[in-house]
Amino acid sequence: MEANASVDMFSKVLENQLLQTTKLVEEHLDSEIQKLDQMDEDELERLKEKRLEALRKAQQQKQEWLSKGHGEYREIPSERDFFQEVKESKKVVCHFYRDSTFRCKILDRHLVILSKKHLETKFLKLNVEKAPFLCERLRIKVIPTLALVKDGKTQDYVVGFTDLGNTDDFTTETLEWRLGCSDILNYR
């Protein structure tokens, strides 16, 4: 009997809190709608111009990324090219692979998809047999390894498939989430 009374009281308190929160959100929305209703033509025109300028800048940024090799997943031939590529882009994912490693081919499939979806990040691959110095310097011991480079500095690594559920059947979304955790791509 006493338990029912406390459950009822808790339920009423929760209901009151929910009603108050809903009322606050509704008042905020009403004030925003009122602001929009009171805008005159000049204010609407300024708002429109601001939005158009933001769209122009976004398009310009997209073109700049494409001109730097973003939007595609490609192999770089040497260590020297790695340093050049990393210098010219803010965010880079580099897959250190070996042709004979089956799991590298699995990772390739996912990276092709992500490179087209996330233009803000450059996606590269480098054969470890052609980059022994770089592998030593970055301490790459397990293949496949993704080096996540931001502003010219190696930020993080995805080593093998451990962070991807420890399975060969991980989804592209899982890899996307993992790269987003390191802020190397814009994950939503």
TrEMBL record:
Keywords, alphabetical: Cytoplasm, Cytoskeleton, Nucleus, Phosphoprotein
Annotated compartments: Cytoplasm, Cytoskeleton, Microtubule organizing center, Centrosome; Midbody; Nucleus
Matching SUPFAM superfamilies: Thioredoxin-like
GO-annotated cellular components: centrosome; cytoplasm; midbody; nucleus
CDD domains: Phd_like_TxnDC9
Location (main, coarse): cytoplasm
Limits of the Thioredoxin domain: 79-162
One Pfam match: Thioredoxin
SUBUNIT field: Forms ternary complexes with the chaperonin TCP1 complex, spanning the cylindrical chaperonin cavity and contacting at least 2 subunits.
Functional note: Significantly diminishes the chaperonin TCP1 complex ATPase activity, thus negatively impacts protein folding, including that of actin or tubulin.
Protein name according to UniProt: Thioredoxin domain-containing protein 9
Lineage, broadest ranks: Eukaryota, Metazoa, Chordata, Craniata, Vertebrata
